[in-house]
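Lab notes, practical 5.
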Amino acid sequence: MRPYSPDLTPPWKKPEPVPEVPAQPGLVVEEPGTGFCGAVIRCEAGTVTLEDRFGKHRVFPLEPRGFLLEGRVVTLVRPSAAPVRPTRTASGSVAVPGARARVARAGRIYVEGRHDAELVEKVWGDDLRIEGVVVEYLEGVDDLPSIVADFAPGPDARLGVLVDHLVPGTKEWRIAESVTSEHALVVGHPYIDIWEAVKPVSLGIEAWPRVPHGQDWKTGVCRALGWPGNTGAAWQGILGRVRSYKDLQPELLGRVEELIDFVTGSGEA
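Output from the prediction step:
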């Protein structure tokens, strides 16, 4: 009989337990070592295959504490039974069981920043994959004329652009007007930043704070709400609270749906 050997590791040095989550098809996770984010398309003995929004596949081992789900560390495990498929996607569309991602269209949707792209992927990702629409992000609206010129939109390659805080009479408005055409549509929402398009109630706050003119808006918001000063971490917390279109303001919902319809030819030019 082995002698009793107590665990003398101090409690504060023991890793906290993390939840085990079945790797169901469609579950969107991130592999923190590489930063690869994608939806589960296959889970086999010891591995999981992810597909990102560009249709790229990566295979990762099913290791403990190996993935991030909505910003939280989890352990993916192989599903033990046939998954229960959702009847609706996060955007509210009817889910299509077994639908495969369509080969990417020539058309594209551009959004203004990485956070915008991540939010669009989370809510409309299933719809975009079925339609074969790729979302990319701009570094700034000033680059829009050259991007549109290089893209050369046409009847079979429409271009849609979503711009933050698009207000009539501003420089951004004039740039948007200059590139809009029969095959290029630029629309905007009224919010200073895509953060503000998330409903405050979904985040447990009464309202988005007002940040004095001249201050960085995101930094000012974090300071006013007592959030950590790391705006990247703050955004991951915000994104983790977004479950579906119901967590977003209608002014954003309408603009994104308009762009998807335009690029896919479902809406009028």
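Observations recorded by the TA: The first strand starts at residue 20 and ends at 22. The chain has two domains: 18-77, 108-264.
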